[in-house]
C-alpha cells in the first residue's frame, strides 16, 4: 500500500469518526471540534476558553466534556488530551475549507493560543518548557508572520538536542520529529525539514528499514544544516532501543491442573534504562484479532463479560511484568508532570515485587513521567489490549488452559476452579516472574493473580456498544472523572475465577489498595 493510499484511507476513517461524533450529539459540535484541533494538546480549561471566545451561544458547554471524552481524543496525562493525528489533520483541513470560517478564523485561534501559552508560562509552574514550546509552535505555523520563526526555532531545537548528555538526546530528537510531523500540513514549504523528521522517526520505529547511507545526508533548512546523529547510524538502531530475543516456557494444563504440554518459545523485547541499574522490559505484542469476553458456558462467567465480540488490535509493546517497586521509585523521584507520587506506597515491600496501593491517577502520572523521560508514549493498556495480550491466542479461561494452580500463579488457593485441587494461599504479593512460566506472547505468570492491573477504560456493565478497534472505551458524560475504571487479572487474594482472562472488575480511580497494581504499554502515539 503506497503512501497516498494510506493517507486517503486514514482521511476517510477520520471523516467517518468525526461524522459519527457529530451525529451522536448535534451539528454545532463540529464547530467545537474544528477549534479544538489547532492545539497539540487540550486541557478542559483551554477548551472552555476556546468555546467562550469563539462559540459562546452556538455550542453548549456540555460539548466540551463530550468532545474530550469521545474517541476523537485520548488522555495523555492528568486532564491532558490529544486528538488522533489523522482526525486533527482532517478537522483542520475542513475548517480551512469552511466558507463560514476559513483561514481568518484559524489565525484568530492561533493568536489566542499564543496569548494563552504566554499566560501559562507566567502563571503555571507545573507546565514544562517542552509543552509550552510545542503549543507555541502549533499556533505560530498558522500565522504568516510567525511561521518562519517557528521553523527556525524547531531547527535550533534539533541542533541543540545533540548537546544533551547521555542518551537523552535520543528522547529529544524523537519528540521534535513527532511534533514536526504533526505540523506537516502547515510546513509544506519546508520539505527538507519534513524529510529530516520523517527519517528520524523511521530510526525510532523501523530502524532496520533505514539505509545506513541515509545517515550521511545533510538537510538544509533556512540556511541551517541538520544531520543524522552518528550514534544512531553506528548502532544501527537509531533512536529506538534495540529489540532483543528472549526465550521462555509455555505450559498447558487440563481441568485438573495437570501439566499436559510444555514448549520453549521465543519473543522480542526492548529494554528501557531507568537509571541506577533499574530497567523496564517491553515485550513486542503482534497485532491480530480475537474474540473478547467469555461464552455462557464458561465456569464463573458474568453478564458483564458479554456479548462476546471480535476486536482487532494493532501491534504494541507491553511490560513483561507488572510495574515493580524499583521501577515505581525511579519515576517517583523524577520531577512531577501533574501530581506528586509517593515513592514507597506498597504494603508488601520488595524492589522486585509489584508496586501496589497506587490509584488509577497515580498510574497515569507514572506513565506521563516515563513518557517524558524516554520520549516514547507510555500509557495504561485498554481493556481490549489487556485481554488480547493475556490470552495470547488462547480461548480457554486462563492462558494456561482450562484451570489454574498455585504452582503457576499467586492467588487464593483455598478456592478452586474446574477440577483442580486446593492449593496455597500466600496472603501477599510475590516477586514478579516468580513462577517462571509465560503465555505465548512472553508475558509472565503475573497476568493471572499477584495484583489487579489498572486499564484505561471506564467501567461499563456489558460489551453492548463496545469499540472493535482496541481503543479504550470511555464515557461521554459530565460526571465521569471519578467514574469507576477497569482492572484485570485478579490478585494474590482473589479466588481463581476472578483471575480468568475475561473477568472484569471496576473500582474508583482514587482508591489505593494492597492488591491493585498495573503494567504499562507503549504504542505509536506521541507526547510533547
UniProtKB/TrEMBL annotation:
One of its GO terms (molecular function) is formylglycine-generating oxidase activity. It comes from the Bacteria. InterPro entries: CTDL_fold, Sulfatase_Mod_Factor_Kinase, SUMF_dom, SUMF_sf. Gene3D superfamilies: paralog of FGE (formylglycine-generating enzyme). Residues 281-521 form the Sulfatase-modifying factor enzyme-like domain. PANTHER family: FORMYLGLYCINE-GENERATING ENZYME, SULFATASE MODIFYING FACTOR 1, 2. This is Conserved domain protein. It comes from Coleofasciculus chthonoplastes PCC 7420.
Amino acid at each position: 500500500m503506497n503512501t497516498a493510499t494510506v493517507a486517503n484511507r486514514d482521511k476517510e476513517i477520520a471523516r467517518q469518526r468525526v461524522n459519527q461524533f457529530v451525529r451522536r450529539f448535534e451539528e454545532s459540535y463540529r464547530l467545537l471540534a474544528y477549534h479544538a484541533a489547532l492545539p497539540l494538546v487540550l486541557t478542559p480549561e483551554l477548551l472552555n476558553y476556546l468555546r467562550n471566545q469563539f462559540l459562546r451561544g452556538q455550542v453548549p458547554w456540555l460539548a466540551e466534556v463530550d468532545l474530550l471524552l469521545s474517541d476523537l481524543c485520548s488522555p495523555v496525562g492528568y486532564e491532558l488530551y490529544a486528538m488522533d493525528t489523522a482526525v486533527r489533520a482532517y478537522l483542520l483541513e475542513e475548517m480551512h475549507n469552511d466558507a463560514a470560517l476559513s483561514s481568518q478564523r484559524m489565525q484568530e485561534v492561533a493568536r489566542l493560543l499564543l496569548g494563552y501559552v504566554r499566560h501559562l508560562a507566567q502563571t503555571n509552574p507545573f507546565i514544562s518548557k517542552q509543552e509550552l514550546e510545542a503549543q507555541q509552535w502549533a499556533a505560530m505555523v498558522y500565522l504568516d508572520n510567525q511561521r518562519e520563526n517557528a521553523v527556525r526555532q524547531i531547527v535550533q531545537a534539533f541542533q541543540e538536542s545533540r548537546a544533551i548528555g547521555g542518551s537523552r538526546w535520543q528522547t529529544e530528537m524523537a519528540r521534535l520529529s513527532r511534533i514536526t510531523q504533526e505540523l506537516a500540513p502547515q510546513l509544506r514549504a519546508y520539505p527538507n525539514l519534513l524529510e529530516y523528521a520523517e527519517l528520524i522517526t523511521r530510526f525510532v520505529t523501523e530502524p532496520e528499514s533505514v539505509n545506513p547511507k541515509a545517515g550521511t545526508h545533510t538537510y538544509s533548512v533556512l540556511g541551517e544544516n541538520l544531520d543524522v546523529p552518528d550514534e544512531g547510524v553506528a548502532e544501527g538502531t537509531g533512536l529506538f532501543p534495540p529489540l532483543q530475543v528472549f526465550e521462555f516456557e509455555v505450559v498447558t494444563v487440563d481441568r485438573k491442573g495437570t501439566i499436559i504440554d510444555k514448549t520453549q518459545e521465543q519473543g522480542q523485547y526492548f529494554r528501557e534504562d531507568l537509571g541506577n541499574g533499574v530497567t523496564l522490559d517491553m515485550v513486542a505484542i503482534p497485532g491480530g484479532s480475537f474474540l473478547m469476553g467469555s461464552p455462557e458456558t464458561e465456569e464463573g462467567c458474568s453478564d458483564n463479560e458479554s456479548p462476546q465480540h471480535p476486536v482487532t488490535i494493532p501491534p504494541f509493546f507491553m511490560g513483561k511484568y507488572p510495574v515493580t517497586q524499583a521501577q515505581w521509585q525511579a519515576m517517583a523521584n523524577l520531577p512531577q508532570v501533574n501530581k506528586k507520587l509517593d515513592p514507597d506506597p506498597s504494603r508488601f515491600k520488595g524492589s522486585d515485587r509489584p508496586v501496589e496501593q497506587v490509584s488509577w491517577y497515580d498510574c497515569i502520572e507514572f506513565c506521563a513521567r516515563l513518557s517524558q523521560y524516554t520520549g516514547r508514549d507510555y500509557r495504561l493498556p485498554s481493556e481490549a489490549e489487556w485481554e488480547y495480550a493475556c490470552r495470547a491466542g488462547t480461548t480457554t479461561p486462563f492462558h494456561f488452559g482450562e484451570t489454574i494452580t498455585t504452582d503457576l500463579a499467586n492467588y487464593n488457593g483455598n478456592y478452586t476452579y474446574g477440577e483442580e485441587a486446593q492449593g496455597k494461599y500466600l496472603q501477599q504479593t510475590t516477586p514478579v516472574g516468580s513462577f517462571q512460566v509465560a503465555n505465548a506472547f512472553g508475558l509472565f505468570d503475573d497476568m493471572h493473580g499477584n495484583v489487579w492491573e489498572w486499564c484505561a477504560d471506564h467501567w461499563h456493565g456489558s460489551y453492548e456498544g463496545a469499540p472493535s478497534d482496541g481503543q479504550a472505551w470511555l464515557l461521554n458524560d459530565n460526571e465521569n472523572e471519578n467514574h469507576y475504571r477497569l482492572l484485570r487479572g485478579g490478585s494474590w487474594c482473589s479466588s481463581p475465577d476472578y483471575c480468568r482472562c475475561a473477568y472484569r472488575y471496576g473500582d474508583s480511580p482514587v482508591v489505593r489498595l494492597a492488591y491493585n497494581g498495573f503494567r504499562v504499554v507503549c504504542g505509536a502515539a506521541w507526547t510533547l
